[in-house]
Every structure is written in C-alpha cells, then in structure tokens.
Amino acid sequence: MSLRQWSIRRRILLVGTVPALIVVLLLTTYHMVNRWSDIRKENQSIARIVLENIGVTAEYPIISGNYELLFPLVHAALSQPAIVSIRIHDAAGRVLLDNQTERFAEVPAEDIRYLRYDIVRQVQSLDEFSEFGDGSTEAKTLGYIRLGMADTFTRDREISILRQSLLVGLGVVLLAFFIGRAASLSIIPSLEKLSLFIARLANGNSNERIKVDDGAEIGHLQVNANQLAQSLQQAEKDQQSYTRQLMSEQQKTQQASRAKSEFLAMMSHELRTPLNGAIGMLQLLDQDISREEFNDYKRTADQSLTHLTQLLEDVLVVVDTEKNKLPVVFKEQKLPDVLNNLIQDFSHRALDKELSLVVDYDTELQRNAIRFDPSLVRQVVRHLVDNAIKFTDSGMVVVQLQLVKNNNHDWLSISVTDTGIGIPEDHKQRVLEAFAQVNSSFNRRHAGVGLGLTITHHISRILGGHIEISDGINGGTRVLVDFPLGHSPESEAVEPQGVAHGLRTLIVEDNPVNSKVAEKMLLKVCPQMQINKVSSGEESLERVKTQQFDLILMDCQMPGLDGFETTRRLRESGLTTPIVACTANTTDQIQDKCRAAGMDDYLAKPLKVATVEAMVNKWLQRTSQEC
Amino acid sequence: MDFCCKDAHNLYRWLAACLLTCLLALPVQADNTQIAFVVHEKLPSVEQLLQKTAERLDITAELRLLNNPPPTGWQSYAAVVLVGPQALEAWSFAESPPAVAVFVSRDAVAAISSKLASALYLEPPLKRQIALAKSILGADRPLGVLMQDKSEWKNSGLSSLPLQQSLVTPYFVDQYENLNRALLDLLKNSHALIGTYDTELYSSTNIKNILITAYRQNKPLIGPSSAYIKAGALATTYSDIDDVAHRLSEMLLTGLKEHVWPEADYNPYFKVRYNQQVGRSLNLLLPDAESLASQLTKDEREH
Lengths: 627, 303
Known about the structure:
The complex is a heterodimer of chains A (627) and B (303). Chain A has 627 residues and is of the alpha/beta class. In chain A, 53% of the residues lie in helices and 18% in strands. Residues 436-447 and 490-500 of chain A have low confidence and may be disordered. In chain B, helix 2 packs across helix 11 and helix 8 runs parallel beside helix 9. Chain B starts with a helix and ends with a helix.
C-alpha cells in the first residue's frame, strides 16, 4: 500500500516516530561505540598502568628472587575485570610467577589476548669516564610480564550499556509516538467532522453549518466548507425557482399547444360553415329563381365569403401575433366610412339576438378624416363588437369611438360595453393570450374562434396603445382600446398623373380566374376603363414597349419572370406608370419587397370591390366621366 | 757581470729569508714542550682536562684520537698523556715519547707499569676511604670490604695491617655461594661496606643489588668512587678534573723539566662527596665535606 493511501493518523505517527527512531538508533550506536571504545581504552590504559607498575616493582623481586613482594600488586591487578592472568618470566624465559583470576577457567582460551611487557632496568654505566660526568645509562632486560586480558567480563558491562541505551531509545521513540498521536488527535477529529459534513452536503443537506473551532488551515477549511454549503443552498434555491418557472412555462406551452390543436380542429369547422353557405347559395343561384331570391342568395353567399375572408385574416393576424410582427399601413380616411359596412352587418346580428347596438362617434371623427390603418381598426372593432354580441344574450352593446388629445398627439379610443356574461377577474389577463380561451366547453357554447381579444390586444400593442378590460353595466364587460394615430406625411400623397384620355390598365396575371376577377372588378369600379391582359412578365415587357398604360396590376407569383423581377425591369426601362402588386401573400415582408422592386402599392387577394375602388381612386384620380 | 750581480743579490735575499725563518722557528724548537692528550674518542671531560693542564703548565697541548696519529709521528710531542683504559691498552709504546696514563685504575696500570713514564690512578686509595668511613661513622665501627678473592686483598695494601686495629674485615665472594650471601654476611657484621674500585664486582648490574641489600640492613656503602654516589653510595673521596689536572701538571712539569718522572700513584688532591638523600634515609649526620676533605688530606700528609 503506498504512502498516499495511508490515513493521516498513520502518516503523522510515521513522521513523528521514524525520525526519532533513526536519531535514537544513530545516537545509541554512537554512544555505545564510544562507550565500548572507552572501555577498551580504559582496559588498555589499565593494562599499561598495571604492566608499568609491575615492571618497575618486579625489578627487585626478580633480582632477589623475593617474588612474594609482587603478590599485592598482582592481586590488585587481577581484581580488574579485564585482566585474567599475570605471568612473569625471567630474561631466559623461565616462569617466575604465574597468577590467574579465580574465574580464569570460565574464560575461553581464544578470548584471551596476551600483552608482553619487558621488565627493563636502567643502569648507570660505571666506567672511568663516568667519574668525570661522561657516563651514560644503559637498559637491561631482566625479564618480561605476560598479561592475559579478556573481554569476557567487560562484555557484561557492554551488554548492560547496550541495554540501557536501547531502553532510553525506546523511551524516546515511545515519547515521539505519543506526541505524534497527540498531534494527530488534534487534527483528525476536525478533518473527520469536515469530511462527514461535506458528505452530508453531497447528500443534499445544505442547510447545515459546521462549527468553526479551529485556526489556520483547518479553520480556513471549515470556513470554506460553510461557504460551500451556503453557495449550494443558494444554488439549490435558484434551481428550485428556475424549475418552478420552467414548469409553469412548460404548462403554459402545453396549454397553448393544446389550445392550438383545439383551435385547428375548430378552425376546420369554422371554415366549413362559411364555405357551406357560399357554395350552397352559389348552387341555388344556378336554378330558376326570382329576383328577390337571387338577391337573398347572393347576399348570403357574399356574407359567407366575407366571413371566410375575415376568418383567414384573423388567422393570419394570429400567425403574425406569434411572430410579434404586423404590417401597419396608415391611410387618411374618415372613420365612419371604414366602419359603416361592418356596423351594418352587426346591426343585423344584434337585431337577430334582439339586442340594441349603439354606435357613438364623436363629432370630430364624423367630420374629419384621420390617419390610421383602416384594416386594423376595422378588425379591432369587429372583434370587440363580435365578442360583445356573442356573449350578450339580452340588453345592449354600446360602441363609443372618440378622438382623444394626449400629449399633443391624437389618440383613437374605442370602447365597447355590453351587458353580457362578463369575464371573471382572474381570466381577464388570460383571455388576451393567443389560444388561451377560458375553456373549450365555454368555446363550444359560444361559437367562434375565440381569438378576438387576443387579436385586439396584439393590434393595440403594435399600434403603441393599450387594452383595458373592466366590468361593464350589470355584470357585463367593458373593453377599452386606445392607440395613437399616425401623422399625415406628404410622401403618402402621391401625385396622380393627369390623364386626358380614357384610362388604360394592364393586368399581368398568369391565372385566368384571377385575371378575370381583376378585370371584372376594375370594370365594376370604372366601366370605361380599357383593360389589357397579359399572362406573363415577359409578355408585359413587350406590351409596355408598344402601348401606354395609366396603371399596371402586377401578380407577384408567376412562372418565368415573377412580378418583382418584371417590375424591376420595367422601372429600369424608365417606366413611371403606377404598378400595383396583386398578391395572395400577406406577410409583413411582402410590402417591403414590393417597394424594393419598384411597385407603388399592393392589393391583397382575394380582391374586394371596395379595395379595388380605393386603389383606382388613389392612383388614377378618376373622374366620373372617365369611368 | 750583470748576471753575477743579479746572482749575488738573489743570494742575499735567500739568506735573509732563511735567517728569518730560523729566528721564528727557534722558540718552538728550543721549548719542545708540546703535549698530546690521546683518547679513544672525543669527550668533554678530556677536553676540560687538556685545557686545565695546559693552563697550569703554560704549554701547548692538543687532543689526538688514538686512530689519528699526527703526520709527523707521536715523537713530535714532548710527552703523551694516555687518557682512559682504552688509550692505555691500545698504545704501542714503540717510538713513543714519555707516556703518562690518567683516568685509569690501579689494576689497569699494574699490567704495563714498566712501559709508562708515570700514571695517576683514578680511584681513591682504600685507606682514604676507610678514613672517610671512620670520620663519618666513628673510628670504632667495624667495617667490611667485599673482594673477589684473597689476591685482591693482598694487592690492596691493607693486608699488612692487623685486622683488629683497622677494624676492617675483608669478605671474599669466592668463599660464598654468591654475592648476596657474602654481602649479607658482611652487612651482618659490619656497620658499613667500603667499596673497592672493582668494576666487575661493583658492576652496574650488581651495584643496585648491593645498595638495596645494604640499605635494607641500614648499612651504608662508602665509595668506591664518585660515580657510585649518584648510584646510591653514601660518601666517597674523589678527585675531580681540577684535581687530576693539578696532579698531572705537577707530574708533567717534573718529568719534562727535570726528566725525572714520578712513580705511578693515587692522586693526593681529592674532595669528599656525599649523597645527602642516602644520609637522610639512614639518619646519618654528615660532617662538612670540605673541612672533612682538608682534614683527611692533612692526616694523609702527616702519615
């Protein structure tokens, strides 16, 4: 197992004990070696002293043969543990004295080291010249001492030194061990607590905090762990809130998706109703019928198709709403002119439900033309009134239209009040959201797409205005929409070209049905008009070269050269004749695209007599004589 | 003519030079008193002796080693002084000027005394030592002399005196098992051991034994010479270099001037020397050395 896998306790003990052990071993060894060498030196020195002493003392006994004189010294020497035997020889090698310790027999022979010491006598030379101070001394060997030394008995001393040293060393190592243990005990519980705390943190207990009871690194660790816990807690809270938000969003999305599905299902039903009306009536027209019946059928078919158109318009608006964009086209018109047809329609419906519909224009609106997007305003009014009539079973619907001055700016305020079922307080915001009807069953009972308020809300927002839903008279609903009106720009006032001859119009359209509808409508508006038809862009380019026109109706989608490209080429050739786009595409980009190609205006398909008339009036400055 | 004149002139010059040389050489030739001190090796004591003797005689003397004779031969000296037994033994007396031996014992001289002009014995005479012993210990104390054998005793010059009178008893080593036995016997009966200058008996090997044995018995050793004082003898009479130079110069003076060489003899000039430590150890009260020496000299002269 590598050191890294060891517990801190073991590592600290290792760090504490091993150096102590090494130091103790080194010191003990050093100490013992020193002591042993001291003992050896001491023995040697004792041996030397003994030998010198005996050597000096032995001189006389050897000469005199009085060896007893040496006994005290020899016995004293033998009392030294290192000295085991003393033998004195004369110069010839004869043994004069031989003494051993009592324990000599115990000493193994190979343990005994013998030291030889010559007993030397310094004698003065006594010749003739020494009388006069020229004498010298000479050494004479009388014999020698053979000293037996053995470490057998000093070994006991050495072993006892070893034992003592090891005992002391063991004590030091144990002390180091206990110190290391104490050190580990001061660190490990804190770390264990921290570890447990972090483990609990990992399990999600971020509410807990650890007590900061340590300093330095562990203290910092504790503080940091607490900060970690706090961050985790915060993150958890944030996550919860995000999750909640996400779930609510998801719910909303699911709801919207469900509403959309229901809307689509309903839409097919809604679309079939006017289609059925129109087709049925048109079939009846084929039969032999009276004038009165014809008018009735025609009106019903007309209404059905109008209804269908409105339905499609609504759907397109809703699609735009989804994209949060809506093309706005300001026009200068009198408001009652725009709304009259609509109001008339509603009057019929109100009459059928035995409701009274009151429309109140303020005087300024009746008198002056204002600048607004007639299509959008019409939609707003239609939806509001339609809703009011739809949800009112008895009583009345009051429509108030006012011009309000606000910050030097004209605002149009449209207020529709009914005496119907009203909208519960908590649903007032939701009804403004697309496809978020109160519920489907509610929808079933009150037939309709259920997008009225949503569309209204969207339009008012696009126009920079507000919508406000409040309680009306007798529990009914009052919806107030207001938005600023546009300024009157000069650019809009296109200079109509003076036309002295009969009006000539070129229709560029690949579809013969559409071509025919356009021709018939133009003739309806202006029966005197000379109408030329071509079926492709290339053809129109050719025709323009040979003929002059006052107006060109250009279909946008055509095989070969499309309307945009054709217009571009016409403009490049220097043609200034007004070119009006005629397209089924009503997206917001189409207007910009038309202008970019050089077109002056556009008509949305399906064409309506009213819009065609307005267009002709605008671009041809028509006189009654010419038509 | 010119040639003759030149020759005559040269002749005068030659004659003048010869005369001058003769005049210069005359005192040396006339006073032929150059002396050689012959020794086997250079020793400070011999140099001192040479110097002191030369001073006393006011003559020139030089030190010559035995193996290094002068180129002109030994005969160029008026006399030779043979210093030490080695020089004495090695000396060939053929073609030799008168030879005087110093630093030699009586025994060494005895063998060749006839060839020597004269000799000065190294050791003090036994009588003088006995006189010294008596002066220190008292005249009535019995004294012992250790000798190898009886012949030695006969040569000592004491044998003629009655033993009781001198209170000196000789002990002959050859009559005992060994030296120690003789010594113990002697010490048993004597108050002091008088040492004789017998380098064999009182050898450096024996002297310690003799001294220790004697002091065990609380008996002092007197003599045999100055060198033994250092070894542990109590007292001795001795002649130092001054004394030797004194006597030698007298002998040389007599010999060279009067051509009569004195007989070989002991040195009449001597001093007394003690080993104070031994005296203290033996609890002996020692008289003043100088006065004792002059007393002893005086006594000797009277006799």
